[in-house]
């Protein structure tokens, strides 16, 4: 058991340390995607640039599971376009991980 948990933790460490592995969400990649696809409306650092877009800097709308946010971002909502076919699920999960770092 001890041996197994040691293997498990080194696999986990590898996922965090090796760039490009997709086991864990990648906040750095998420930041890049955010500045390409989201910043125009949600603003730098999540300080919203539109009156009706949530402020991620205040944690707005982020009190929901990643899978629900993923579904909303893929579908689009009101004036937010659908990102289905534009971003892969893993990329959207990376952005969500980044959004969760913005609350101040
Ligand atoms: C054209 C402007 C625009 C762009 C681009 C945009 N959004 Fe939005 N987003 C909005 C608006 C407006 C809302 C609020 C929709 C509503 O009225 O509920 C929103 C809502 C959200 C929400 C909250 C969903 C909920 O449950 O209410 C999340 C999360 C989100 N956006 C993430 C993103 C991410 C990630 C990107 C980039 C991949 C992005 N948005 C790009 C305008 C935009």
From TrEMBL:
Xref: PROSITE patterns: CYTC
Keyword NADP set for record: no
Span of domain Cytochrome c: 25-103
UniProt-listed Pfam families: Cytochrome_CBB3
Keywords: Electron transport, Heme, Iron, Metal-binding, Signal, Transport
Keyword Iron: yes
Recorded superkingdom: Bacteria
Residues in the signal sequence: 1-24
Name under which the protein is recorded: C-type cytochrome
């Amino acid at each position: 058991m001890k041996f197994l948990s040691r293997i498990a933790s080194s696999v986990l460490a590898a996922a965090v340390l090796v760039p490009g592995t997709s086991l864990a969400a990648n906040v750095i990649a998420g930041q890049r995607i955010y500045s390409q696809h989201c910043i125009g409306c949600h603003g730098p650092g999540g300080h919203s640039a539109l009156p009706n877009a949530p402020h991620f800097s205040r944690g707005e709308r982020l009190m929901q599971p990643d899978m629900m946010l993923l579904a909303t971002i893929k579908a689009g909502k009101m004036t937010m376009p659908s990102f289905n076919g534009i971003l892969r699920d893993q990329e959207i999960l990376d952005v969500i991980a980044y959004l969760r770092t913005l609350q101040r």
